[in-house]
Design brief:
A seven-stranded antiparallel β-sheet has the order 14-13-12-11-17-16-15, covered by helices on one side. It has a seven-stranded antiparallel β-sheet with strand order 21-20-19-18-24-23-22. It is an alpha+beta fold. Helix 17 packs across helix 18. Helices cover about 30% and strands about 25% of the residues. The protein contains 18 helices and 24 strands. This is FERM domain containing kindlin 1.
């Protein structure tokens, strides 16, 4: 026995469990420590007592009761607040995790459970060869979706074995952080820009990525489409409340996996959380483009985002085309300079459309801002009578539309002047029926004023629609994004405009199409297989000459054109309201939506936001806008921190610039998403 005096009166016993793989060896150790001993000293003492030859460099102390890591090794036990009743676990910081990617493939790899999720996702993306990791995050599947899967699995007699891509030799497995994999602008492309196949022996542009050429192809190529039965088993949101459940499980980017209750070998979803795909480049982004395409594809197939029947057929035709090219060996060795130019043009359009970066405002300074003037038909929905449709002379200037009885009266006062800044613009188009309409929801004091503009043809529609879209964001037609927007709208309309060719249906290649794999279940139930195949082949004629990467980019563009694109829904209760509403969070605005009808009530743009914060005691998000507009709400379908982080995240992403040498200001991200502004 040692006398207590030998230790000093202020020493005490600390119980530490050790997480090691030796079954027979001791797991719990008692250390005699003092409050002024630093964390590094505790670990040193512990390793000396364990006496097992092992590399302990990736180990750290985890405080079970407080659910936190003790990573500041120079802090003393007193400073950390650790006392004799503390239960500490000495465990590895990097653990295995299963991640389900947007293409529904599962990868198993070692991930840091002690870094904040923002950093862990960055490391994962380096391994998977995905640039711009700030656009992605980790999502915990909701109970509803898991429950539906389990129910279906019970009906299957044979156990389903999931095909998992094992990447456990990743650089982080040794506890070392991956090297900063940011490419330089002069580096050699590692993918064939057209087919997306690895074009160099290095396979990836991250020198330490464990991806082999085969694994690269699994991530960069779209693989055989699932069966209609698999589609039927997957969770499909039916209502806005269902869609809100999909977004409830985003992990907190400012806390670690372990702090959020994630265990070793758990499965999480890796998804694009923010819909601002910045600086897409076919030379370096084969995996990224494919994963965005796959996320878009599944959103369409599972009806997470609504689209018309005409649009569904376009999406089906593009999927069919991508599927054909991906399985064709001809794709592998195909390259052409002119197509690279076309793809890069499509990319610049896509980037402008998604507001990924700041466009030049030099043109805004000129005095002669372009205007549009033409006869259009105005449609005002009436509550109790037939809607009125009348032709008027419309003039579009700055961000406003005025209309007059005719051209002669255009010199005088307009019948009405509509300011479109902050309005919602929704396409109302059926190319086959020659219907080219623009639905405008204009904010007024008590909600949204709804009206429609009807155009005569595609060209007129594209010019006016582009002007409306820009005006809603507070931009005029002098902005450099106007002409690319017109071009994007016209190219989408062109894809919708097709006629049937008899040879397309009789082509023997097309007989084994399995059309049910390219459309959502609603259309599988509505049409017979042969009818669907014929309609998809009609639509395919307009996209059949596209290269693989271009087809994927067009799919992403078409997805981006949908009114619901980029909206993440949450059920909220606004301050002063007696009923629940849905809040849609987008890359540039918040929308209050009626939960029963799905109609937008009010829109608030981020560009008008002055400040936002959270009252953590009552879990209420409060936001102030220009002109003394302020809103406050509590979130019912998820933690309010998720919405708060979404808003801050989008503000953060809007600060990105190609001039900043691609380094991310992680501190700014946490400042904007943390909770105090």
């Amino acid at each position: 026995m040692t006398s207590s005096g030998a230790y000093g009166s202020n020493s005490w016993e600390l119980l530490v469990s050790v997480d090691h793989q030796y079954e027979e060896e001791q797991k719990e150790f008692t250390l005699r420590v003092t409050g002024d001993l630093h964390i590094g000293g505790v670990m040193l003492k512990l390793v000396e007592q364990i006496k097992m030859p092992q590399d302990w460099s990736d180990y750290a102390l985890w405080w079970e009761q407080k659910k936190c890591w003790l990573l500041k090794t120079h802090w003393t036990l007193d400073k950390c607040g650790v006392q004799a009743d503390a239960k500490l676990l000495f465990t590895t910081q990097h653990k295995m995790l299963r991640l389900r990617l947007p293409n529904m493939k599962t990868v198993r790899l070692k991930v840091s459970f002690s870094s904040v999720v923002f950093k862990a996702v960055s490391d994962v993306c380096k391994i998977l060869n995905i640039r711009r990791s700030e656009e992605l995050s980790l999502l915990k599947q909701s109970e509803d979706t898991i429950r539906k899967k389990k129910k279906k699995d019970k009906n299957n007699k044979e156990p389903v074995t999931e095909d998992i891509l094992n990447l456990c030799n990743s650089p982080v497995s040794s506890g070392l952080s991956a090297s900063p994999g940011l490419y330089s602008k002069t580096m050699t492309p590692t993918y064939d820009p057209i087919s997306g196949t690895p074009a160099s022996s290095t396979v990836t542009w991250f020198s330490d990525s464990p991806l082999t050429e085969q694994n690269c192809n699994i991530l960069a190529f779209s693989h055989p489409i699932c069966s209609p039965e698999t589609l039927a088993e997957m969770y499909q949101p039916r209502t806005l409340a269902d869609k809100a459940r999909l977004n409830a499980g985003w992990l907190d980017s400012s806390r670690s996996l372990m702090e959020q209750g994630i265990l070793e070998d758990d499965q999480l979803l890796l998804r694009f959380k923010y819909y601002t795909f910045f600086d897409l480049n076919p030379k370096y982004d084969a995996v990224r483009i494919n994963q965005i395409y796959e996320q878009a594809r599944w959103a369409i197939l599972l009806e997470e985002v609504d689209c018309t029947e005409e649009e569904m057929l376009i999406f089906a035709a593009l999927q069919y085309h991508v599927s054909k090219l991906s399985s064709s060996s001809e794709t592998q060795n195909f390259t052409g300079e002119s197509e690279v130019d076309e793809i890069e043009a499509a990319l610049s359009n896509l980037e402008v459309a998604l507001e990924g970066g700041k466009t030049s405002n030099i043109l805004e300074d000129i005095t002669d801002i372009p205007k549009l003037a033409d006869y259009l038909r105005l449609v005002r929905p009436r509550k109790l009578s037939i809607k009125s449709i009348k032709p008027y002379w419309f003039v579009f200037k700055d961000t406003s539309v005025s209309y007059f009885k005719n051209t002669e009266s255009a010199q005088g006062e307009p019948i009405e002047k509509l300011n479109l800044k902050g309005c919602e613009v929704v396409p109302d188009v059926n190319v086959a029926a020659k219907k080219f309409g623009i639905k405008l929801l204009i904010p007024v004091a008590d909600g949204m004023n709804e009206l429609y503009l009807r155009c005569d043809n595609e060209n007129q529609y594209a010019r006016w629609m582009a002007a409306c879209v820009l005006a809603s964001k507070g931009k005029t037609m002098a902005d450099s994004s106007y002409h690319p927007e017109v071009h994007k709208i016209l190219s989408f309309l062109k894809m919708k405009n097709w006629t049937m060719s008899p040879q397309a249906v009789s082509d023997p290649e097309n007989i084994d199409m399995k059309p049910e794999c390219f459309v959502s279940l609603r259309y599988t139930k509505k049409y017979k297989s042969k009818q669907l195949a014929a309609r998809i082949l009609e639509a395919h004629q307009n996209v059949s000459q596209m290269s693989l990467v271009e087809a994927k980019l067009r799919f992403i563009q078409a997805w981006q054109s949908l009114p619901e694109f980029g909206l993440s829904y949450y059920i909220v209760r606004f301050k002063g309201s007696k009923k629940d509403d849905v809040l849609g969070v987008s890359y540039n605005r918040l929308i209050r939506i009626d939960i029963a009808t799905g109609d937008p009530i009010t829109t608030w743009r981020f560009s008008n936001m002055k400040q936002w914060n959270v009252n953590w005691e009552i879990r209420q998000v409060a936001i102030e806008f220009d002109q003394n507009v302020s809103i406050a709400f509590t979130c019912l379908s998820a933690d309010c921190k998720i919405i708060h982080e979404y808003i801050g995240g989008y503000i953060f992403l809007s600060t990105r610039s190609k001039d900043h040498n691609e380094t991310l200001d992680e501190e700014l991200f946490h400042k904007l998403t943390g909770g105090c502004h």
